Structure formats: C-alpha cells, structure tokens
Amino acid sequence: MLKLRNIHKSFGDLKVLKGVDLEIKQGEVKAIIGPSGTGKSTLLRCINYLEKPDAGEIMIDTLELNAKTITKQEIYELRKSTAMVFQNFNLFKNKTVLENIIESLVLIKKMDRSTAIEIGIDILKKVGIEEKKNVYPSKLSGGQQQRVAIGRALAVNPKVILFDEPTSSLDPELVGEVLELIKKLAKENMTMVIVTHEMSFAKDVADKIVFMDEGKILQEGTPEEIFSSVTNPRISKFISRLSK
C-alpha cells in the first residue's frame, strides 16, 4: 500500500537518511523506534513531503513519486492520502475544537460547512471530546489537544496516519488517554506509522517494529522478534538501557 524505496535526506553535510526502504500494508501498524537523532521523524516528514527527500521513491497505491521529478500536483495528491499528527499538536489557536476539525474539509475538500460540521461532530464523538467542540485549544489539556489533532487527521479520511512522537509533549498522567485512542484506531484497522519512545506501547499496538540507527533501518520484525528474540547487539543494548 505504502512503499518507500532508497530514501535519502541530508541537511547540509549531515546525512540523516541513508537509503531507507520500508513497506506498510493496508491496515498495518508500524512503530519506528531507535535512538534520538537517527532520522525517525525526518523519515516520517519525508513520507508526506513536509521534508523533500534528496533521492528515492514513494509509492502509495497507484501513485508513484520520484524525489528527482516530483511535481506540486503529485505532492498534493500524496497529502490527500496521508495525515500527520505532530508531537506539539499544531492546532489553530484562534479556532475552536470543531473549527480545527472541519478546516481542511471546508478549505481543501471544498465541502459545504453544514456537512463538514456533521462529520466534525461524529469525529469528536469518536475521539471522545465532543463536549469541548466550542472550546479553544488554550483551554484544553495536552491530552485533549492531541485527541483533537488526531480527530483533525481522521477528518480527511486518509489512507495512512503518520504519528510523530504523539505523547512526547504530554505530562505522564495524560499519556494513557492518547495511547488508548491510538490503540482503538489500530483495532479498527487504520493504517498507521508511529514514531515513538513508548516501548511498551509499541510492543502492544504494532504489527511490526522498525529499529532505526544512524539513518538506516537496522532491523524490522514482530514485537516478539525485536523485544524478546533479538540477536543484534546494538538493538539489545538500546532496549536494555530503556528497561532499566
């Protein structure tokens, strides 16, 4: 469904991604783990061209994009199929919860406002925050803001949702509500790619786990293969350090 082939990305002389290949099947949840600064978030941002890869190909269903020849129209088509949930929420501070949800439906999908509001209310029910529909983001907890951000991603009916450290900006007591919502989406066969430092969550929710190190995928496998049966010393060291 979604394939990455030989993705490269540098910032100046710093090579961040060094030929990444990755495939995500429809309905699959992949968690990307690994040390900080190893390119996980950059890879996610390259998938929907918030960062432009220097080289490589991205394929989603019948759409095939080459970093060397990609057009603005192709980027637009790619972004219609993907949605991003950021660690810092990125909500419109001057818009209510409901307005944040329906913004893309009205402006991008050209939906009439009444229909967009109906869809928006349904989504707010789904993410468990309907009672806050007329509240501004500044009046919400971090967990509530992230649930709004997930609702906004769901609104465009994407083929894939990309999560970039969705709990890293939350107080510890608020992490659970966001993780439970993502687990709920996983049970509904939502295709998701999740960059996370929450190892127990990755183990619990992911079909496959990808371990990245120094801009490359070092290993991919089931949670059992990565956490319990791993033979790679680099991964073993990383996991054992986190579990201490």
Q: Which terms summarize this structure?
A:
244 residues, alpha/beta, Rossmann fold, six-stranded mixed sheet, four-stranded antiparallel sheet, 10 strands, globular
Q: What's the CATH class label of the domain at 2-85 and 159-242?
A: Alpha Beta
In DSSP terms (H or I, runs of 4 or more residues), the helix count works out at: 9
Please state the overall shape, judged from the principal axes of the Cα atoms: globular
Radius of gyration: 18 Å
Sheet/helix structural class: alpha/beta
Provide the CATH topology of the domain at 2-85 and 159-242. Answer: Rossmann fold
Query: What is the helix fraction of residues, given as a range?
Result: 25-40%
Order of helices and strands: EEEHEEHEHHHEHEHEEHH
CATH-derived architecture of the domain at 2-85 and 159-242:
3-Layer(aba) Sandwich
Mean pLDDT: 93
Number of strands: 10
User: What distance separates the N and C termini?
Assistant: 37 Å
Main-sheet strand order equals 6-7-8-3-9-10
CATH superfamily of the domain at 2-85 and 159-242: P-loop containing nucleotide triphosphate hydrolases
What's the story with the biggest beta sheet? 6 strands, mixed
How much strand? 25-35%
Spans with pLDDT under 50 lasting ≥5 residues? none
